[in-house]
Each structure stands twice: as C-alpha cells, then as structure tokens.
Amino acid sequence: MTLKNHSVHATIPAADMDRAKAWYSEKLGLTPTRETPGGSVYEVGSGTFFLLYPTPNAGQAPNTSMSFESTDLKSDVAAMGDAGVVFEEYDFPGLKTEGGIANLDGALAAWFKDSEGNILAISQDAV
C-alpha cells in the first residue's frame, strides 16, 4: 500500500470560526466554497483546498501548518501587508528574514499567523 498518488489537503484549526472566517476573507481574500458539518472548505489553486475546522486546540502547533505557493512572492507579500497581514521576523542559524522574507538558497519564504495563532507561509521556488 502506498499513498504516493493520493491528493492531500490541509486542516487548519480555529477556536472561533466566525473570527477565523472573517480574517481569511479580509486578509487573504478567501471565502469558503462550501460548509460541512466538520468546518469550512476553501478551494484554492490547482484544485487544492483546505479545511478550517472548529476546535479549542487552535494555534498550538509551533510549526508551519500550511504554505501557499507563489510565483511572485515579493509582490504577494506587499499586497498581503497592505491588507493587514503581519509577517514574522526570524533570526536563527540558517534562517533570517529581511522585511519578512527569507532567502533559502534562491527560494523565498515568508511566514505569518492567522487570527487563531496558526503559522502559515507563502513561498516561491528558486528560479
């Protein structure tokens, strides 16, 4: 048995669904494409989606929960900043951001938190 050819999706926890849905709408311009008993489904690029689901455990993961792919990260970061998204600044061995953006051997990445404290990212492959 292998999962190699199975598609995947992210599940993002929300302690307050109304607050989280407002944040995703106002900051990222996203609205759910459908509501299920388990949460709100957001369809995004290339046939992918994520589920925003209610739980009191939101924002507890100390790692990136989901990453959006970009073809122009600097432009996307600027637009997101204009919408009120606050980007994290990191200065660790092997990872330093400048203006919220890290250069990882030519690939670019920026991290931000949603209204629930979940760490999300936007990244661009090396050109």
CATH class: Alpha Beta
The side-by-side strand order for the widest beta sheet comes to 5-10-9-8-7-6
Helix content: 10-25%
Q: What would the average pLDDT be, to the nearest integer?
A: 96
- Stated plainly, the CATH topology is called 2,3-Dihydroxybiphenyl 1,2-Dioxygenase, domain 1
The major β-sheet equals:
6 strands, mixed
What does the model show?
It is a single chain. With 127 residues, this protein is an alpha+beta fold. The chain has a single domain, classed as 2,3-Dihydroxybiphenyl 1,2-Dioxygenase, domain 1, CATH 3.10.180.10. It is 17% helix and 38% strand. It has 2 helices and 10 strands, in the order βαββββαβββββ. A 6-stranded mixed β-sheet has the order 5-10-9-8-7-6. The longest helix has 12 residues. It starts with 9 loop residues before the first strand and ends with a strand. The model has no long low-confidence stretch (mean pLDDT 96).
Features:
2,3-Dihydroxybiphenyl 1,2-Dioxygenase, domain 1, 10 strands, 17% helix, 6-stranded mixed beta sheet, 127 residues, alpha+beta
Layout of secondary structure:
Blueprint: E1 10-14, H1 17-28, E2 34-36, E3 39-43, E4 49-54, E5 64-69, H2 73-82, E6 91-92, E7 95-98, E8 101-104, E9 107-113, E10 119-124
Parallel strand pairs: 1-4, 5-10
Antiparallel strand pairs: 2-3, 3-4, 6-7, 7-8, 8-9, 9-10
